[in-house]
Structures are given as structure tokens and as C-alpha cells.
Amino acid sequence: MENQIIETQQLNLTKEDFSSDQMVKWCPGCGDHAILHSVENVFPNLGVRKEDFVVVSGIGCSSRFPYYMNTYGFHSIHGRAAALATGVKLSNPKLSVWMITGDGDSMAIGGNHFIHTVRRNIDINILLFNNKIYGLTKGQFSPTTPKGTKTKTSPQGSFERPFNPGELVIGAQGNFFARTLDTNPKHMTSIFIEAAKHKGTSVVEVLQNCVIFSNKAHELITSRESKDENQLFIEHGKPLIFGSNKDKGIVLRGTHLEVAKIGENGITEKDILVHDKNETDPGVHVMISRMMPPEFPVALGVIRAIEFETFDQAMDATIAHEKEYSKIKTVDDMLNSGSTWTIE
Amino acid sequence: MDLIDSFFRIRAYSLKTYNFALLNKSFMTIKKSKIVGLEQVVVRFAGDSGDGMQLTGSLFSDSTAFAGNDFATFPDYPAEIRAPQGTVAGVSGFQIHFGRKTVYTSGDLADVLIAMNPASLKANMKWIKQGAIIILDIDAFTEKGFEKAGYAADPTADGSLDGYNLIKAPISNLTKEAVISLNLDNKSVLKSKNMFALGIIMYMFNREIDLVSKYFESKFKANPLVVEANKMVLAAGFNYADTLEVLGSTFKVEPAPLEKGKYRNITGNVATAWGLIAASERSGRELFLGSYPITPATEILQELAKHKDLSVKAFQAEDEIAGIVSAIGASFTGSLAITTTSGPGLSLKSEAIGLAVMTELPLVIVDVQRGGPSTGLPTKSEQSDLLQALFGRNGDAPVIVIAAQSSVDCFYSAYEAAKLSLEHMTPTILLTDGSLANGSEVFKIPRVADLPEIIPPLVKANDPNYKPYRRDPEKLNRFWAIPGTDGLRHRIGGLEKEDGSGNVSHDPMNHQRMTFLREEKVNRVANYIPEQLVYGSEDAELLVVSWGGTYGVMRTVVEKMQKQGKSISLAHFRHIMPLPKNTETVFSKSKKIVVCEINNGQFVKYLRMSFPQYKYDQYNKIQGLPFMVAELEEKFNTLLNH
């Protein structure tokens, strides 16, 4: 993307440059609308030409997204968006590639492509809409549905252990993981910008509400009454403090995290864990990703951001090297290389 | 050269088809200086996996090329990487068929077998002619060797080899003696015993051993002792053959009348990879391969991975699906996109092929067919996937299907697959098979500039008339608007598209119209492919029909029977979907049609469906083995006599 960064002012792009003429067909009240607006607000401000964005998706409610963005876009097949995005990015690494996916699309049917894309560190941005349900097929449990949840395919309550996307990403050697909320456009926007700036696979989990099939799945985190006790906005270099009175914090005790109250049991602000998103050791980042109510607040923000060589850079560098040093410069050279003989 | 010698030379050349093995027998008593000219010969090298038979075979191939013959080769190695030593399962073989005329196949039955141990003799008896010359490393014919090979008794002593010309050569011991002055350890010495066998064969066929010695010098540059040892062993084998009384004469296959030009030896998989790279250069579209290793297609991925020097982007994906889907992403982005696989992988790619059909993007899917269903016979060749290629998708999802007919033709078929796919904006399946893929042939090196030009239907920036599903009125292809281009932003996907605009559409009449358009687009490819060739008279009594990888053997049999005056012709198909425009005319002229396939009758089903007015006989073999000349001849004679 480096060559493509042009002064934003010069490009003069606005939100309208990215709005498509297609009717948006998500349910009224769906969290996807807010995410779409945030992305429309982010794209004009990245210094990328509007023709250099490609938005790809798999299948699911979230995957309709490319139709609603006026960019180059590809709505592919279930679970395969990561593979498609990989092909787009490797074919032309100058493009800014955005993949829109859901918990069913990427954690279940596309799990394999998802983890391998993260492992390879291909420079794409993945927005994972996590509503903890299959919406488009009308309400079956997904790999992120909490244990015990009653759905159409778990009428007695799901007995599966769910995935935590952050833990999965970091386990797959992911270098960038952030979490945000569909109810907080300002935070969403800032996180999407962080993801865009990061070189390598950036995964942003958006806790998104499905008003029809899993309404209030994130209620503890989002409701006016409980959100302050259950949201922890993390920032690099700052202590992990939360609560309506900012009097609670996360402390590292031995090999696990605990919630502690500042001022009680001799705990001072100094004892609170300070977030370091650049720490290469994944241990604490996994622990922060795993924090969930009611025991913990959920961590929102950039949990992990490590600079590491991207796959597309490595591939281009290898090709450049071979082109410079190989004796074969054309197909004719190749055809005539090695052992040949001539009939006079 | 004495009189008798000249006499035999003249006689040998005057015979059109020459039975090598029988002739050899009658020369047993004649002095060695005799050189017998031959039309064509099949030599088979067989040994334990660790005996270096593939190297021996390829060195002999190089020497055959140097001698100016046309030739084809086929390696026959075990499915297991390291099967137990000395067992039949661990036998590795290499067959070469060379001649002074066009050689169409790697040969059915061998005239000469080199067997380095009892297991390789046992495994190969069914692949040699009656009366063939068998050269054995008699030092390996021990009780232990018989036991491992599953022989109850010494096969050289129980009469089972009567009728063959047996040369019991003490190869292991003579190899040891040859390099005794070098003081090598026993293991290193025995590693070069294959070169002793090669020396014998080189002598038999009047070849120069200097060429092979030069190879040792370049290959083992770092280890002069190994160079020396191999040279000594090769020379020892060569000289040993000179002392063999049982070898009454030596043989020579005169150079084939090949066209002037530069040649090389090439396997089908390498030819496929190179044809695709040539298409990339000629079309100006970078090659992107998304693939996953699978026997017998893996070498295409390996070969393409080598050619980063030609800007090839070879992506080894996490699975077959990611292989094809990444290729579709690259195609959307303007690359010549390829995925390579074999039968089980093609099954996994089905849904994504449908996506490429719906999005009308160029994509070449190479399927190197193997025995099926399921895991089937991974290392055996079969024409297993024709119906899957034609119909194996949800919905009405037509694609172009073409089938390569020889190892060399893999180059031209791959090139054509890419050309058709790019110019018609349609996914194209190229069918090759395990035999073509691993077999090799003499390849007259073309110039890229002489290949037909490829003009992808790219859209220019800011084209005011651009719509994602606007079509070319002739070919009916849509146009290719590449991300990054100004003024052409658009969205595509797997949902049904509105004709023209490309917007998502659930309109009933639109779906029907788009279904017809996708079908008609593929049908019109028939206007851009050559008409079906018929080898022989168009109104022959028997029209033999075949497709893909069986071309060599079909051509051999039909030519042979035509020379015998039989009313027989061959229509061998490379274009499967669509069929050439004159196909029906071709079928209408013969009294009888027989469709021959290495499967349970897939092409014949397709023909019965496409042209139900004709009666089709069929001949099918589903043994993981190629057709043999004799079985086809018998079948065709039966049909001609009824």
C-alpha cells in the first residue's frame, strides 16, 4: 500500500464516494448498518484511491456488505472469503483489501482458510461480525454461541464449547487483533483505521447484534445499565482500568488475570496491568482476549499489534530476486534451457 | 564390415514392421561385429526403488535423443515412498520406446528387460514380449532374494524363462571388481551398479558412452571419486557386453526423420506448466496458480513454483478449495488464474467452479486424472473425470472442457485452455492424466512468437459504456474490468446477476435468460476451435472414437490396421465441450462407431446423449492400465468381421 498512499486532501474523497446505489436489505435495527456507516467514514480517510479498494465477503448476512459499497467488490461463497482475498492481494499487492465475514462464515465453514490466512500474515483487513448466531439461515447456533444457548438446532441449549475469536487469531500466530462494538461508531471507526494502518492480516472482531435471532446477545456489554462494569477500553501504554467510577482494574497474578478494586486490599493504580499491544509473547494478549462477563469486563480496542513480514511482501521480494538473477528472462529462454539437441 | 553383415542390414531395413525379439533369437550364433538395424525397440529398466532405475532410464533417454531417434518414456514407480527392499511392491521401472519413425507411445511390451533383482523380474514378466532379451543381475538371484520376491524356486532354473533370451550377468560382483582400485566402501560401490547395466545396454545399441561420462562430470563435480567410479563401472559394463557370446550382434536404430529444429525431452506435467507460462507471456497477464499437492498433478505446482523468474505467482494453499478460490480472486484482479488438481480435488473444487461460471471469469482448472472413485488408484492413470468435468456442479453450469492427447500436447492444450478461457471469459477444464503427466516425449521446441495470439477482453479506464454483464455480441463473453482501473468499480458474486447491469436479480425470466446465455457462450466456442480430424478415410466401415490421453495407442493400432488394408479410421477428440462443429458429420459417414476409453464408458454416454441417432459400440478398460495394441486390434477385427 505504501506506493498508493497519497495525501488524503489530494484525493478529496467523501463518504458519498463509497455509497452504492443498491438498496440495503439488512433488517431494521441490525448492527450491520452501523458498521457500514463506519466503513464508509473510514475509507475516504485512508489515503487510498477509491479504485484501489477491494471488498470481498463469503456468505451470510454480513457478506452482503460488498454490494453496499461503491468499490470493486466480490461476494463469494460460504467460508471462502479469506482464500478469495488472498488471491486478490497476491495478484495485486497495491490494493487495499477488506474482507467482511461472520462467525459462521469464518469460524465454522471457513475456519481453515481463516487460520491459514492469519498464519501467513497476508496484508488484508478482516472485519469479523460476531453476532453468535446463524442469521441468514434463521437462527442456528454458531461456533461462537455461548454454551447453554437455546437455538433452533440446540432446543435444549447448546452443549458445545464456543470459540473466542481473539484466542483463535492469536493461536494461529496472528499479529493484529482488535475488538469493537457495533453500538459505538466512534470506537469502531478508530479501530478500523488502526486495522488499515497495520501491515499484515488485521482481524477486527465487531460484537454485532442480530435483532431477530440473537437479540441482546451482547446485552451485558452494551446495555446502558451494565456496560460500564463490563466494558474495558484498552489503550497501549495505559493501565487496564474500568468501571463507572474507574476504580477497578486488571492485575496479573501468577499466570492468570484477576479483577481488583483500586484502594482495596492494598491495591493501587501501580498494581494494574499496563497494556502493551506490541508485546511479541502472546500470553497476556490471549488472556486479555479471553476476558468475558460476568467474571471480567470485555476488552475493547487493539489487543495485539506486532510488525512482521507479510506474505505478499515476501512473495514479491522472492520474485524480484529471481527475476534479477535467473538466466531465464523469457519463455523462449525457458523452453531452450537445460538439455536440448538440434536436428540439422 | 563383411558381406553377411551388410546382407543382414539390408534385410533388416527392408522389413517394415520388425519383430525385434524374434530376430534377435535367430542371430544368436552370429559374431559380435554384426550390427542389426531395427525399426523400433522397447527397453524396460527395473530394479529396487533404491537402485537408481529412473536415472539409468533418463541417461539412456539422453543418449537416445543424441542418436536422433524419436522416443517416449514412462516411469513406473511404486505408490509407497520406500517399500521394503527386494519386494515386488518396491520395484521401480522405467520404460523407453524409441524408433526411426514417429513414436506415439512409450510402448506396450518390452523387447529388452533389465532386472536388477528377482522382484523386478517377477513384477515385469507380464510387460515383456515372448522371446525378449532379459538381462539379470544374477548376483541378486539368491535364496533370500527369491524369498523376498515371493518365488518358490529359482526362476532362472525352473524352466519358466524358456523361450526368452536370458543374459545372466554378475553385475554386482563385476561392479565391485571394476572399482577395486578406488578402495570404496561396499555401499558406495553397489550404488553404481545401475551404471554397469547401463553400460551393457549402451553397447547393445551402439551408443557412445562419452556423453554419459560427461554427465557424471557435471553432476558429481564436487566428488571426483564418484565421477571416476561411475565412469569405470559404465565402461566395465560396456566392455563386459562385448565379451558376451550370447549377445550375437548389436543393434542400431537409425535416426528418425525428425524435422529440422531444436528438441528436448519433456514430461506432460512440465509441458502443462510451460504451456500456461507461455500463455501468460503471450496474453500479458501475470500467471497466478492456487493449488494443493495431489498425485499425479503435484509436479505442475512444483514446476510453476520454480518460475518466479517469469513472474509466476505459485500459491500453495491450505486445501483444494482455497487453491481454486484464491485463483478466482486473482482472476478478478486480472491475472491468468490457474488451479491444478486430480479427481478428488476436482470434486472439492466443484462449488468454486460454479462461482467462476456465475462470475464469468477466466480460470483454467487442470485435472490430471487418476483411478477413481474416492482415493481410488492414485498412481494409476484413468480417464476418470470426463463426466465430472462436464456436469459435476450444482445448477446448469457449463464450462469449456478440453483434453490433452500426448505429453507434448499438454503444452499446446494448456496454452489453448488459457487462450479460450481468457478470450471467452469462461472457466476451462483441461483434462490430462497420470500417463501423460509422468510420461515423456521428444518435444520440438516452438517459438513463443509463433503461438497464436491471446487477446483478453479488457475494459479501458473510464469506459462510459461499461456494465459488468454487457456482452460481446459474437462470443457473448462479458468484459474484464480490473480492480485499480479508474471508472470501472463494480461488484460481482455468486448470486444470479441481472443481464447487463450485473446487479443481484431474483427475477424468474432473467434467470432463464442468463442460463441460456451462459450455455450459448460455451457453445459458441465451437466457432473458435478446429474441426474434428479423421485419420483415414471419412467413410471407413469402422470409425474408432477416442479422446485425451489414449491418442498414441489408438493412432498406432489404426495405422497398423490401415496398412493391412482394413477399412478403419480414427476420430480422436481433444475438444470435449463444446464438441467440434463437424462432429455429427464425422459420425454420419461410418457404418460402425466404437468408442474406446480407459473408464466405464463416459464419453460414449455423452455422445449417446448428444447424437442419439447413431449406434455406438464401446470398448472400456478399467484396470489402471493403458490400452495394449493387441487387445484393440482384436476388438476392431471382431467388429469389422461382423
Descriptive key words:
heterodimer, A: about 350 residues, alpha/beta, Rossmann fold, 8-stranded mixed beta sheet, 3-stranded antiparallel beta sheet, 12 helices, 12 strands, globular, disordered N terminus, B: about 650 residues, Pyruvate-ferredoxin Oxidoreductase, domain 3, 3 domains, 7-stranded mixed beta sheet, 22 helices, 22 strands, about 40% helix
Secondary-structure arrangement, i.e. CATH architecture of the largest domain in chain B: 3-Layer(aba) Sandwich
Second CATH tier, the architecture of the domain at 2-217 and 309-318 in chain A = 3-Layer(aba) Sandwich
Please provide the ordered H/E string of secondary-structure elements of chain A.
Answer: HHEEHEHHEHEHEHHEEEEHEHHE
What is the number of helical segments of chain B per DSSP (H or I, 4+ residues)? 22
Indicate the mean pLDDT of chain B.
92
CATH topology description of the largest domain in chain B: Pyruvate-ferredoxin Oxidoreductase, domain 3
Strand order of the largest sheet of chain B: 7-6-5-2-4-3-16-9
Task: Describe this protein's structure.
The complex is a heterodimer of chains A (344) and B (642). Chain A is built from 12 helices and 12 strands. Chain A has a domain at 2-217 and 309-318: 3-Layer(aba) Sandwich (Rossmann fold). The N and C termini of chain A lie far apart (53 Å). Helices cover 29% and strands 18% of the residues of chain A. Chain B is of the alpha/beta class and 642 residues long. Chain B folds into 3 domains: 3-253, Pyruvate-ferredoxin Oxidoreductase, domain 3; 264-450, Rossmann fold (3-Layer(aba) Sandwich), CATH 3.40.50.970; 542-641, Rossmann fold. Helix content of chain B is 38%, strand content 20%. Chain B has 22 helices and 22 strands. An 8-stranded mixed β-sheet of chain B has the order 7-6-5-2-4-3-16-9, sandwiched between helices. In chain B, strand 12 (336-341), helix 14 (343-359) and strand 13 (363-369) form a beta-alpha-beta unit. In chain B, helix 4 (118-124) packs parallel to helix 5 and helix 11 packs across helix 12 (298-306). The longest helix of chain B is centred in the middle third of the chain and has 19 residues, at 224-242. Chain B is globular. The chains are: A alpha/beta (344), B alpha/beta (642). Chains A and B meet through strand 2, helix 3, helix 5, helix 11 and helix 12 of A and helix 3, strand 9, helix 11, helix 13 and helix 14 of B.
